[in-house]
Every structure is written in C-alpha cells, then in structure tokens.
Amino acid sequence: MSLSRKFNCLIVDDEPPAREVLRRYIAQMPMLALAGECGNALQALSVLKEQPVDLLFLDIQMPQISGIELIRTLKQTPRVILTTAFEQYAVQAFELDVTDYLVKPVGFERFVKAVMKALPGHDRPSPGQLASPATQAANGGFLYFRADRKMVKVLLDDILYVESLKDYVKIYTSRGLVLTKHGMAALEAMLPASGFLRVHRSYLVALARIDSFTPEKITIGQQLIPIGKLYRQEVLKALAI
C-alpha cells in the first residue's frame, strides 16, 4: 500500500447496524475509501476476486462461513481488522496474523488506532496526512464533516450544540448550521469529553457555550435545550451542582 493513494476497504458483517457504524467511521478517515460492504463471507469472496482490497473489516460469527474460515480460504489476504461481539476468538485470530481485533460496540478512537496499525509507516505518521478526526479533536482543533457534497471544516471552538435528527445531526456553530449524515454516538466519540457533554438523547452541548441552566434545561444564546431524565444526574454532576 502506498500513502499516495486512498486505501480500499471492504466491510463484511451480517448485521446492518454494525456495517453502518463502520461505514460512518470510514467516511471520517480521509485516507480510506469504501470499496463495498457484504452481508456474508460468500459475497466477500466475489468482491475480493473482482477488485483489489487493501483493508478488510471482518466479522467473525456469520452464517455459512465464519470470518476465521474466510481468512483461511483466501490465497492472498488483505490486511484484516476483525470486528466481533465476542472476545474468546482473540488468540485464534492473532494466530492468523490479523492486524487488530475490535470488540463491539467499536468506539471511533479505537477504530482509528486499528486503522493506523494497518497503514504503512503507522509508527511515524506525518502530521496533516494521517491525522485522524479524533486526533484533531484531542488537539483542540477541528473536524471535517461531509455536507452539501463536500467536506466542511468545523472548528471545535465554534460549536454551540448538536442536535440529532434520525440519521443526521445538526451542528450549530457560531458561523452557521452544518447538516451531516452521522450518528450522535459516533459524533460524541469524536469530540473531546472535556469540552462537550451529552445532555439528552438528541442533544450534545459545548460546555463553554452554556449561558445558564436549571435541572430541566440549558440555555445557549436564545436556544433552550432540554436535559433528559436519563442524563440529568450526570449532567448536574458535570456542571458541579
């Protein structure tokens, strides 16, 4: 694999929600390209015969042929990151020389670490070329989101709050609104916990932007944001009440 091009990824998992999470994570990594996704190992075999794949995100327990059996079937195996809800296959997996082993639910930061292991020269990434969204966020910088058919740069300091809307999120910033197809849980994992707080299943706020609050709601500018009952205890604890 060469760092001058994107790395083609294939997702193989029989669970649509698991494929959706990986698809969103891959979209946030500028060095990755999604070559396709398959619901079982037989479909994956067909894809692998037809096009080159650099990185395989592979579930283990699937109908007909397991992920482990698929690896043993391949004559030329791309780099493999296993994704599974079960920890007991770890030893068996690493005997097959896989790059990494991710236990579901997979967090974005853990995903990034696994991808970095799979890339050539991962121990010496060049700043700007391999900087992941999670790394950018940790450095207090910015994130890129796909919106209006382009990648839009959002400064973390500009974010006021985030609202979930089905398969999309609305990111309200001091510069305007960014609407992007993203899950709230994945977005929350990308943001530094020291600066942002989930206050409701549909809302996440920037702590520095809070103007006032009560046990039931938070005010940011003219916007009233509800505090969910399931989140209230943690929110009030974080706000030092």
Descriptive key words:
5-stranded antiparallel β-sheet, 8 helices, alpha/beta, elongated, 5-stranded parallel β-sheet, Rossmann fold, 27% helix, OB fold (Dihydrolipoamide Acetyltransferase, E2P)
Describe the structure in brief.
The protein is of the alpha/beta class. It has helices at 16-27, 41-50, 67-73, 90-95, 108-118, 133-138, 184-190, 232-238; strands spanning 7-12, 32-38, 55-59, 79-84, 100-103, 142-147, 150-155, 159-165, 168-173, 176-181, 196-200, 203-206, 212-213, 217-220, 223-226. 27% of the residues lie in helices and 32% in strands.
Specify the CATH homologous superfamily of the largest domain.
Response regulator
CATH architecture classification name of the largest domain: 3-Layer(aba) Sandwich
Could you say what the CATH topology of the largest domain is called?
Rossmann fold
Content of β-strand: 25-35%
Overall structural class, as computed from helix and strand content, comes to alpha/beta
Q: Total domains, how many? A: 2
Per the principal axes of the C-alpha atoms, what is the gross shape?
elongated
Q: Rg to the nearest angstrom?
A: 20 Å
Helix content: 25-40%
Instruction: Give the class-level CATH name of the largest domain.
Output: Alpha Beta
Task: Report the uncertain regions.
Answer: 122-140
Question: Please, what is the oligomeric state?
Answer: single chain
* Helix and strand pattern: EHEHEHEHEHHEEEEEHEEEEEH
Kindly report the average pLDDT value: 84
Strand count, sense and barrel status of the largest sheet are: 5 strands, parallel
What is the number of helical segments per DSSP (H or I, 4+ residues)?
Answer: 8
Distance between the termini: 52 Å
